[in-house]
Amino acid sequence: MSDQSSNGNNGKKQDQPFLTNRQGHPVYDNQNSRTVGDRGPATLENYQFLEKISHFDRERIPERVVHARGFVAHGEFEAYGTIGDEPAAKYTRAKLFGEKGKKTPVSIRFSTVIGGRDSSEAARDPRGFAVKFRTEDGNWDLVGNNLPVFFIRDAIKFPDVIHALKPDPVTFRQEPNRIFDFMSMTPESMHMLTWLFSPRGIPKNYRTQDGFGVNTYKMVNAEGQGVLVKYHWKSQQGIESLTQAEANAVQATDLGHASKDLFEAIESGEYPKWELCVQIMSDDDHPELDFDPLDDTKTWPEDQFPLLPVGMMTLNRNVENFFAENEQIAFGTGVLVDGLDFSDDKMLVGRTFSYSDTQRYRVGSNYLQLPVNQPITQPRTNQRDGQMTYYVDGKGENPHVNYEPSSLGGLTEAEENGKPYEPMISGKLTRSKLSRTNDYQQAGERYRTMPDFERDDLVLNLVTLLSQAERHIQELMIAHFLKCDQDYGRRVAEGLNIEVSESMVETA
Ligand code: HEM
Fold first, then answer.
1. pLDDT-based confidence at residue 394 (cuts at 50, 70, 90)
2. Is 257 a catalytic residue?
3. What pTM does this model have?
4. CA dihedral defined by 434, 438, 443, 446, rounded to 10 degrees?
5. Which is catalytic among the residues 145, 205, 221, 461?
6. Which domains does the chain have, with CATH numbers?
C-alpha cells in the first residue's frame, strides 16, 4: 500500500528490476492515475494507464470449444528401439522410435471434455490425453483420451454429440434427458457409455489413468510398407478411479484437484510415467473380424493383437506460465512425422481438419509461431505475414525469393527419407455406414469382464442419470442395454422400476 500522495517508489531498492510499459518506458507511479488535481477528472492522454487497462481487457482468448479445462506438463519420451520383439524399423522409419535410448522432448495436456475453463476436474467425462513429441523431423501430436473408444464413428456427428453433452441452450444446465435422447438414437455409443459410466469415467487424478490414441493410424517403413496401428499409454502409477460419491466430495472443496495433483507430484520430484504400446494389424479390411478396424467405437482384442511396448514417457517439468503453455498450446491429429500416417478412419479425417481450423480462430493465424507450438527444428516456409506475425520463417539464400520453384536461391523441396507410401484406394462415392457396425457385442463383453463392484457402479451411475430422462428414452436405452447383455439391460430396468416387456426382450 503506498501513500496517496507519493509516487509509490519509496521502498524501491535500486538493484531490483523496474516496471516498464510495453514501449519500454519506465513506470514511475503504478498506483495513481493521472488526474487534474487529486480528485480528478482523469486525463485521456495517459498512455501508461490506457495500455495497462486495454491489454487487461483483452487477456482472454476463446476457450477451447471442447476440452476447455486442462493442464500441461513437459517431459521426455525414451524409445526402446524395438516394437515388441522386432526392431522398430520393421514397422516404421519414424526416427523417434528407431534407436534404443533415444530421447524426445514431449509436452502433454490432460483435460476434461465438456465443462468450461474453470469447471470441475472430478466430472464424469472422458479425459483428454494429448501428447506433442518434439522430434528432429518436426512435431508429432498424438491426441487421445483416457478411454479406448468414442461415442460416434463419423466426424459429421461430432457437433451433435457435443451439443447433446454440453449445457442446454435455454437452461444452461447439463441435462440427462438431452444426453440420453441423443445416445438412445446412436447405438454405436453403447460401448463408450459402458466405459464412461463405469469407475473409469472419473479417474482419481491425471496420473492414475491410461491413455489411448482411439483412432486407427498407420506406420510406414523405409520400403514404403504400411501397417494399421492403435496407440496405448499404460500408466506406471496404476489405475485409480473415484466413485460418484467420492467425486462429489472432491468437487465440493476443489474444482481443480487433478491439475494440483500433477503439478505437486512433478514439483516434488515424483515424476509420473506411461509406457507407450502399439497394436498392429496388416493394412487391409480384415473381413475375418466382426468389426471394422477403422471403427473407433471398437477395441482390438488383445489376445489377437497384443500390446507391443515401444518406449516410456516421463513428465518431469511443470509449466512456467499457464496461459502461454496451456491456453495457447495447439494439438492436432494432422501433425505427423515421416514414418507415421493416417488411416481412412472417417473420424480421424474429420478431426484432422477440425483442430487446425479451430486453432486459427481460437489462437490466431500465426499460432504455430508461438514458442509452445514451434517445432525444435527451424521451420522454413514461404508463408508470410498475417496478424501477429512474430518472425519471418527460415529463408533460403536469397531473401527476395518467397516462392517456389525459383532459380534465384529460394527454398527447395526436401528429399524423401524412404520409398513413398502409396496405397491404392478405389470405391463408389457415397454416404453410408460401415457395413460391420456390430454396436452391442463389445459393450456386452466389457460388461461381462468387469468385476462385480464395477458392474454395480456402472448400473448405479446409469440409473441415477437415466431416472432424470423421459420414459420413452429410458425404455429405448434399456432395449439397447439388453442387446449388449441381458443381465445389463435387466439391471438398469430394475433400477428404473421398468418392467422388461416381451417386445423389448425380443428386439434385444
Ligand atoms: C470428429 C471428431 C472430433 C472432432 C471434430 C474434434 C474436435 C476437437 C476440437 C475442435 C478441439 C479443440 C482444439 C483446440 O481448441 O485446440 C478438440 C480438442 C481435443 N480433442 Fe477432439 N475432436 C473429435 C474427436 C476426438 C476424439 C475421438 C478424441 C480422442 C481420441 C479427441 C481428443 C481431443 C483432445 C485430447 C483435445 C484437447 C487437446 C488439447 O489439450 O488442447 N477428440 N477436439
1. confident
2. no
3. 0.95
4. -100
5. 145
6. 16-59 (4.10.91.20), 70-369 (2.40.180.10), 441-507 (no CATH)
